[in-house]
Predict the structure of Copper chaperone PCu(A)C.
Amino acid sequence: MFETFAKAIQSLSVALMMGLPIASSAQQLSDNASIVVESPWARASLRTSRPGGAYLTVRNEGSDPISLIGLRAEISGMASIHETRTNSDGVSSMAPANDIMIPAGGMIALEPGGYHAMLMQLQSPLVEGETFSLTLLFSDGTELEITVPIVGIGARGPEG
Ligand SMILES: [Cu+2]
C-alpha cells in the first residue's frame, strides 16, 4: 500500500521535473486546432511614417474561453491591438485594447471602426499585392502565425 503510494509520488515528481503536463485539460488548452483565423487583410500604406492596420476574424472552436492578448509582426517595430471608439459627437479615437476574450464557440472580428491590429514603426511600406506575416498571441500560450494579404489603400474589406 505504502509502496504504491511512494511510486505514485515518484512518477509525479518525474513528470514535474520533465515539465510534462499532468492534467489532460492543460493539453486541451494549448491545442491550436481550436483557434481558427479567417479573412485576414491589410490596407496598403503610402509611407512607413504612418501606421498600418490589419483586420481578421478569430473563431474559438474549443470548449474553453480564450483571450487574444497581443500581436507580433516582423514588419512592425510595435504591433498591438487597438480599438476605435466613436463618441456621441461622432468623433472617433483609438486606444490600445486590453485582452479580448473569445467565449467557447464564439468569435471576434477585427474590422474597420472597431478592433484592429495596429502596426506601428513599419519597417517597410505595405505594398498592394504583397503579404506579410502576423503572429497572434493567446492567453494559453498559443502563438498563431498567419499570412496577411495587402489590398488597395481604399479597401473596405479583404476583396478590396
Ligand atoms: Cu489603431
Q: What stands out?
A: The radius of gyration is 20 Å. Residues 82, 94, 116, 118 surround copper (II) ion (CB under 6 Å).
